[in-house]
Structures are given as C-alpha cells and as structure tokens.
Amino acid sequence: MLRRSAKLAAVAALLLLAPAFALAQQGHSIRGKVRDSSGNTVPRIIVDLQTGNGAPVGQTTTNNEGDFFFGDLLESSYAVIVKSPDYNPASETVEFSSRVGANTPGETRTIEIALTPRADR
C-alpha cells in the first residue's frame, strides 16, 4: 500500500511539473524587417545570426517585404548582421536573459535594421 502511494505521488508530481518543463523548452525567436535609408523594405538580402561571441547560429534571406525570422533560440545574446555590397554593414543586438522574471518562455523580439548605401557605390 505504501509503495502504491509513493508511485501515485511521483506520477502526480510529474504531471504537475510537466507544463513547466514544456514551457522551459520553448525557444525564443527574433523577427525583423530590413529597410534602406529611405524607409523602403529591402527584399532578398542575407541576414546572419551569431552568438554574442561571434559563433554562427543561422542565416536567412529576407522575403519580398524585407522580413526575416530566426526561431528556436536559447537564452543568450545574439547579433543580427546584414552585409551587402550595396550597403554599409548593419547589426542589432538581441539578448534573451535567464534572470528570473526577465523573459517569458518563447519570447519573440521584433527588430528593424536600417541600411545606408555605401559611399563608393
């Protein structure tokens, strides 16, 4: 009887903690838009994502509206970098912190990156 009660208590504890584990595993995401100095969106431009120490995480290309997305990210500091022969390099830093109460699981940050034309073009 005591063994059965212990098993039931263990199962109940797991069921109570399961939602917390599920939320902890949801990744963060960065959604953004790339614009030129006139405010026009920049389609089909490569956007790189690196960790705060420069390690590559991912790469994507903006869609026809200049939008990009990186998902399933861990708590860390990230640099979103746009480089193009026609524009000066531009970047934006995004940080997902592990401090208690600082972020909610699965948080999405929205950023905008403004590009300026290269002077030599």
Summarize the structure.
The protein has one helix and seven strands. It has 121 residues and is of the alpha+beta class.
Structure description:
By secondary structure, the protein is of the alpha+beta class. The chain has a single domain, classed as Carboxypeptidase-like, regulatory domain (Immunoglobulin-like, Sandwich), CATH 2.60.40.1120. The chain has 1 helix and 7 strands. The protein has one helix at 2-24; strands spanning 28-36, 46-51, 56-61, 67-73, 77-84, 87-95, 108-115. A 4-stranded antiparallel β-sheet has the order 3-2-5-6, with no helix packed on it. It has a 3-stranded mixed β-sheet with strand order 4-1-7, with no helix packed on it. A hairpin with a 2-residue loop joins strand 5 (77-84) and strand 6. It is elongated and about 75 Å long. The N and C termini lie far apart (81 Å).
Using DSSP, what is the number of strands? 7
How big is the Rg?
21 Å
The CATH superfamily name is: Carboxypeptidase-like, regulatory domain
Structural class: alpha+beta
Any descriptors?
about 120 residues, alpha+beta, Immunoglobulin-like, 4-stranded antiparallel sheet, 7 strands, about 20% helix, about 45% strand, elongated
Outline the fold blueprint.
Layout: H1 2-24, E1 28-36, E2 46-51, E3 56-61, E4 67-73, E5 77-84, E6 87-95, E7 108-115
Parallel strand pairs: 1-7
Antiparallel strand pairs: 1-4, 2-3, 2-5, 5-6
